[in-house]
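re: the backbone from monday

yeah here it is again, tokenized this time
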């Protein structure tokens, strides 16, 4: 007898794969049982059913590793709860290296595992061959063994989650197609299906490769695209050990696992193709795609060399579609423009190992009203409109598949869909040797190549080809004068009669600024966590400009928009593209400014730090604000795009006498880390409170209009729980810091590096780190009394930890220009 659809549910979940069933299970397990899951065909019939089923605890980020660790725990427990065996086998995994750079990457991966208490240790080539006798050891330098890894049966795991959800009261319906998500006044109201309408308080889009198209109906960007993905299954192999670890040879682009007496080997392709560019067939269910040998021949040949099987035939040639995102990150969270509309999709072939944990996180978010951990990397708000369009995704998403097993180099740049957003300084900087990086479609100089050197990244975990050039760029900023393109930084205008009152409520610092003054401030959430850090400049009584980092401009705009109260006269507009911006910095930056303008007086008393002035450079009207992200005296100069190149040329010509040098993002990152300046998303997020990162000085708790999150912040400050942000510097000038290196105190893991670079002024790798301290111990005592080291590729490197920056801790150079 066919089940009747209910007329209402608190939560409607769209999609019956691993993610939809995980969300339903965890909502019900946490007490929200009025849940309906709708599947267009049968459970698992989209992508889940043909997944390889690999599970491992260590993933690419803190959040995804948290998901995967929980996933292993659930696999070990769910059969006792539901009676459904998920097919979990804890066989372990071995990742092999065939060159020194891959070994360096694997060692860093093993270091990262220590942050989570996950066993990952080196294994020699003879030891690997003993565990994996079918492997050809030629060229293998060794590898990393992770005993907790293994595999599960995707259908059985999903079935177990569905059974657990049903047992707690959730309702699951198959063969129901959702035709439309219903909304009213910017909020979800339910779904319309081919068999009736269900009203709902929340709708969760777990539609897998259909998620993008479904989201587009409501203007919800789900930045993924289905791509073709291949694997092979051999005929039965006599005496094949059933406990073979999963073997990964990243450089060969292949993984192997034992599969019921056979070998399954899958590929991370060297070339990849998007699938269903004209839409997914409505009849798709448990379907596979044509197997085109030419698409995988190059990687197949490498696979056969690594694991030769001369007397074994191939039983299954499989090609199935899987969803990949444009940036290799999940989309998990509430849609920015439709309240109550949540998304979990685009997990880049990690659904079986991450699906249980991701579903739990989304369920906790719905129940608690906020993310349970830092999920900012997955936030749907990170995605610009153009990045959710099919034209962009058809090119960018296949590159994510190609990069799955490629080297995960520091600062690796994408190669597809480039040169979309160019600043007015793009062409003159390109002519002067700029090597461009890309963020949110913006092309931004990473470093500058001298004449005769190709401006192209040559990647390494050691000193890359730009290292010496960036050192000279840092040196120019510290000793003379440097100039950088800041155009792509967000510029959000907050205007209207109530603009000041609005910003007083939203910002921690005092926004009752005089016209022409600038302030650095945080914006907090109701839990006292940091939603963003920005600078705010007052241009008039009713006009402020808020400057955001490149990657968070849209997120900051949406945060401000959502805080405007009914009746407030506050208007927002994004003015990012309205100005070209050049940053000048260094002890001779004042001399440069004086040389290019006769109507501005740059001494400290006339143009102090945190102030703004209007004047001319050459024939162009400009305004500049005296700020610094380098730790040096500096200005940010704003000019309309039509005069931008003219101002650039005037500055370049005048700067010759002062040793002016163009610099890029690589140098700036090192400069800001020497000075201990933070970056939201790396060194802090909405999980951290100001007291943890040394930002109490911008929290004006006694101003007339209390800022959002004030009381929660004060309560958290009184509790004084970490982790706490510190500066870190290696004593050995040789090793490099990138990020996520474990920091040890007296031999025990105490935290990790959030961001690192090699600092020219301090002569060593320098960075910031988040440290957990023993209960009852003050930050000062912990830093002064502990012996600190940092794990870099398996080696403990002695380090200095400081609560103040290693460079100019009293900010005399930045505030007064003192040298």
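seq for it, each position gets an aa:
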């Amino acid at each position: 007898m066919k089940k009747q659809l209910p007329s209402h549910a608190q939560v409607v979940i769209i999609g019956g794969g691993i993610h939809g069933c995980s969300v339903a299970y965890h909502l019900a397990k946490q007490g929200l049982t009025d849940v309906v899951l709708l599947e267009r065909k049968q459970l698992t019939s989209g992508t889940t059913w043909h997944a390889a089923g690999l599970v491992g605890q260590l993933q690419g980020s803190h959040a995804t590793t948290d998901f995967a660790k929980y996933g292993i725990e659930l696999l070990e427990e769910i059969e006792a709860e539901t009676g459904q065996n998920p097919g979990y086998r804890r066989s372990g995994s071995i990742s092999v290296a065939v060159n020194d750079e891959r070994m360096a990457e694997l060692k860093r991966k093993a270091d990262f595992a220590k942050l989570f208490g996950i066993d990952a240790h080196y294994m020699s080539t003879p030891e690997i061959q003993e565990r994996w006798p079918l492997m050809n050891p030629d060229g293998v330098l060794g590898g990393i063994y992770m005993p907790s890894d293994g595999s599960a049966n995707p259908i059985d795991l999903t079935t177990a989650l569905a059974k657990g959800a049903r047992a707690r009261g959730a309702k699951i319906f198959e063969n129901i197609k959702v035709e439309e998500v219903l909304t009213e006044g910017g909020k979800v109201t339910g779904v319309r299906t081919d068999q009736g309408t269900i009203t709902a308080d929340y709708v969760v889009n777990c539609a897998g490769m259909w998620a993008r198209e479904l989201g587009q109906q409501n203007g919800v960007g789900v930045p993924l695209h289905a791509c073709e993905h291949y694997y092979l299954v051999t005929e039965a192999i006599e005496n094949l050990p059933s406990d073979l670890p999963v073997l990964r040879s990243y450089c060969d682009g292949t993984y192997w696992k034992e599969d019921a007496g056979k070998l399954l080997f899958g590929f991370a392709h060297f070339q990849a193709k998007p699938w269903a560019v004209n839409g997914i067939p409505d009849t798709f269910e448990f379907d596979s795609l044509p197997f085109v040998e030419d698409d995988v021949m190059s990687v197949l040949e490498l696979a056969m060399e690594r694991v030769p099987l001369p007397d074994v035939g191939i039983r299954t040639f499989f090609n199935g579609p899987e969803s990949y995102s444009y940036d290799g990150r999940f989309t998990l969270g509430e849609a920015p423009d439709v309240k109550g509309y949540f998304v979990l999709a685009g997990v880049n072939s990690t659904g079986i190992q991450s699906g249980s944990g991701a579903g739990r996180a989304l369920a906790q978010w719905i129940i608690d009203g906020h993310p349970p951990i830092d999920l900012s990397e997955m936030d749907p708000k990170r995605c610009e409109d153009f990045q959710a369009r099919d034209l962009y995704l058809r090119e960018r998403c296949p590159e994510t598949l190609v990069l799955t097993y490629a080297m995960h180099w520091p600062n690796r740049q994408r190669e597809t869909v480039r040169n979309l957003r160019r600043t007015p300084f793009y062409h003159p900087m390109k002519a002067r040797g700029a090597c461009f990086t890309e963020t949110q479609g913006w092309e931004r100089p990473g470093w500058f190549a001298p004449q005769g050197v190709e401006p192209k990244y040559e990647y390494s975990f050691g000193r890359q080809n730009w290292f010496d050039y960036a050192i000279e760029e840092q040196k120019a900023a510290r000793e003379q004068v440097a100039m950088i393109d800041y155009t792509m930084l967000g510029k959000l205008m907050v205007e209207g009669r109530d603009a000041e009152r609005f910003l007083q409520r939203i910002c921690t610092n005092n926004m009752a600024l005089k016209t022409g003054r600038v302030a650095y401030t945080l914006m907090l959430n109701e839990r006292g966590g940091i939603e963003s850090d920005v600078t705010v400049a007052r241009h008039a009584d009713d006009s402020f400009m808020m400057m955001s980092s490149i990657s968070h401009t849209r997120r900051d705009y949406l945060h401000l928009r959502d805080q405007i109260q009914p009746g407030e006269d506050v208007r927002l507009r994004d003015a990012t593209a309205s100005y070209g911006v050049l940053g000048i910095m260094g002890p001779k930056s004042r001399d440069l400014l004086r040389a290019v303008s006769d109507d501005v007086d740059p001494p400290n008393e006339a143009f102090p730090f945190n102030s703004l002035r209007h004047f001319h450079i050459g024939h162009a009207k400009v305004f500049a604000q005296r700020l610094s992200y380098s730790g040096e005296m500096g200005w940010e100069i704003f000019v309309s795009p039509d005069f931008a190149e003219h101002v650039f040329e005037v500055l370049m010509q005048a700067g010759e006498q002062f040793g002016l040098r163009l610099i890029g993002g690589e140098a700036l990152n090192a400069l800001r880390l020497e000075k201990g300046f933070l970056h939201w998303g790396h060194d802090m997020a909405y999980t951290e409170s100001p007291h943890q990162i040394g930002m109490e000085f911008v929290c004006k708790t006694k101003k007339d209009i209390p800022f959002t999150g004030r009381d929660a912040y004060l309560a958290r400050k009184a509790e004084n729980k970490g982790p706490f942000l510190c500066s870190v510097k290696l004593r050995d000038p040789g090793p490099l810091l990138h990020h996520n290196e474990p920091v040890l105190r007296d031999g025990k893991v105490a935290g990790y590096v959030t961001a690192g670079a090699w600092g020219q002024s301090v002569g060593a790798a320098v960075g910031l780190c988040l440290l957990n301290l023993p209960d009852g111990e003050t930050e000062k005592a912990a830093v002064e009394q502990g012996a600190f080291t940092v794990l870099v590729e398996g080696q403990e490197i002695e380090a200095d930890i400081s609560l103040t920056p290693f460079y100019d801790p009293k900010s005399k150079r930045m505030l007064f220009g003192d040298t």
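The chain has a mean pLDDT of 96. The first strand starts at residue 8 and ends at 14.
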